[in-house]
Amino acid sequence: MSRVSPRVLALAALLLLAVVAARGATSFTLDPLRLTGRAQNQILQTNQDQLRGNAATNPIPYVSLLLTVTGLLLTVAAVISLLAMIARRKRVRITAVPGREETAEGGAYGSLAPLVRAGRQALARLRAHEGGPPSDRVIAAWLSLEHAAMETGTERQPHETPTEFVGSVLAGHEVNREALDRLRRLYGRARFGVEGVMTEADAEAAGDALDRIITDLEAVR
Predict the structure, then answer these.
(1) Sign of CA dihedral 156, 161, 167, 171
(2) C-alpha angle 112/116/120, rounded to 5°?
(3) Quick one: fold of 110-218?
(4) What is the pLDDT of residue 94?
(5) Angle at 124 between CA 121 and CA 130, to 5 degrees
(6) Virtual CA dihedral for 201, 146, 184, 208, nearest 10 degrees?
(7) Ranges of each domain in the chain
(8) For a Cys-Cys bond, which of 29, 60, 136, 167 suits 132, CB 3.0-4.6 Å?
(9) DSSP 48
């Protein structure tokens, strides 16, 4: 069934009120027959008596009409306001619910799903010793978070580097600050340090920090 716009309802109500007002304010009369003499005087006297009688029995017809029209207008305004409020609440629910909706894979929520998914995959590769030496695995883990952060819908500021951006996205979801700083430092050593300085212990530390970050992201409700 199609939905009727509140504006259409209001317009229809106002048109109806205009018709009622016009009917109340207008009377239709027929021109009297052209009579002469005594017959014409009698007709005029009868009309005057009827007018005086109507004035005595119903002295303020337009006041009643005005009150009726005012009441109808107030009713229409209240109905329109109620419909608009209901529509706004529906839009708020539609906007808010998907962002909190649990996905089928792993219990990640809303826009955090890419980060959690990328973090789990990177953690699995770190602990399975896949992807080359420890430095390469740590770099790959951080870069996967950078790419996932772009999918969260968070706007990257012009002055932010990719590393700063993913750090601000994760910090905005209240992940453990110590774990985030540790993973970021290990990434910096692996990316910009001397080749071969990263050990398996460093890769394990990066995996532990990443595990804590994922846990905190999953706890967001």
Answers:
(1) negative
(2) 175
(3) Four Helix Bundle (Hemerythrin (Met), subunit A) (1.20.120)
(4) 37
(5) 105
(6) -40
(7) 6-100, 110-218
(8) 136
(9) H
